[in-house]
Amino acid sequence: MKLKLTFLLLIVSISLTAQDLTFEEYNPKSTLVVPGDSIKVAKFPFIDVHGHQRRMSNQDLSPVIAAMDTLNMAIMVNLSGRTGEELQKSVKNIADHYPNRFVVFANINFEGAGAEGWIEETVQQLEQDVKNGARGLKVYKSLGLRNKDFEGKRLAIDDPRLNPIWAKCGELGIPVLIHAADPESFWDDFDGDNERWLELKTHPRRKRDATNPVPWEQIIQEQHNMFKNHPNTTFINAHMGWFANDLGKLGKLLDDMPNMNVGIGAIIAELGRQPRFAKKFFIKYQDRILFGKDSWKPNEFPTYFRVLESADEYFPYHKKYHAFWAMYGLDLHDDVLKKVYYKNALRIVPGLDNSLFPKD
Phi and psi at residue 32, in whole multiples of 5°? Predict the structure, then answer.
């Protein structure tokens, strides 16, 4: 009888332990056996138009170059170029050590916009930054989410007081790479229907709602208004404008706004779960898509290469809280890959060294 009771308690204990397994812990290894393998080196040299090196003004760039070389990254666009003296130091560090492997974009602090003399000083500083070597302007998501004008009111992306900045970028011939808002799911209810539930659980500060600060749709529309108001300025919409999960909608936006291009940073998981539709999209809009990664984690680049280049099926993504689903390769043709990897960036970002790329 004692033996029977012990056995029953053991069964119950095992059962309860299994039931206690959380979604975060449940990460089974696939038993599917299919052809394919990791791609550690890009097929063609590429330009990462969405890089971040926040200490470039004084850091040793050799380790970054070593990692870039293992990936076949020819040029990194450092979007964290800052402004003024810091930007000048970064440009000098590049010129002194690796003059054709990095470029920097300038940044603007939008806090206090609208104050007397603010726009004149800001535009003048932007002009000086470009003279000092900046190849573009990076706008962070704080514009639209957190930045306030001189009266303490939320600063909208399409605020007319900012128009001279976007117009000046067009006049100077530099692109504006802008990150607006965050994934729409961050504004949705935090429940079992939310695909970003795990990300919001592990990163609760990312949660938004219609009053924090405003609805998602409003911020996105402000960005699109700004694009339309400045047809002579070239824009790169970071993260595919958060429409990588609705490529039909994104295609209509690209048709409607010919001065808008898109980067693929941090949304490769969306493309990797719709390989056939995404491939058609890349073929149709091959002149408007640029490679970008965002966070500098060299071990994550192979996922991008494999999704873009291979025809592999059901392979893992590198970050569960972004995607709990498997990836499929788009198997893009070389002509399309070359445009995404480097040709589009060479056309859009001024002053890049085209000798680092194939001659065709």
Answer: -70, 130
87 has a pLDDT exceeding 80: yes
Q: Please state the rounded mean pLDDT for residues 31-37.
A: 95
Q: Domains of the chain, with CATH numbers?
A: 38-355 (3.20.20.140)
Cβ atoms of residues 81 and 138 within 8 Å = yes
State how far the Cα of 75 lies from the Cα of 56, in Å rounded to an integer: 14
Q: How far apart are CA 78 and CA 84, in angstroms?
A: 15
pLDDT for residue 65: 99
In whole angstroms, give the CA distance from residue 45 to residue 43: 7
List the alpha helices (DSSP H) in the chain: 2-19, 62-71, 84-97, 118-131, 142-145, 163-172, 197-202, 216-229, 247-256, 268-271, 275-284, 301-309, 334-338, 344-348
Joined together, the tokens standing for residue 308 give 């873009």
pTM: 0.94
pLDDT band per the 50, 70, 90 thresholds, residue 19: low
Q: Which tokens hold the place of 102? A: 């990095």
Q: How far apart are CA 53 and CA 31, in angstroms?
A: 39
Please give the Cα distance from 223 to 143 (Å, whole number): 10
As given in the structure block, the two tokens for residue 334 are 């070389």
Residue 16: per-residue pLDDT: 44
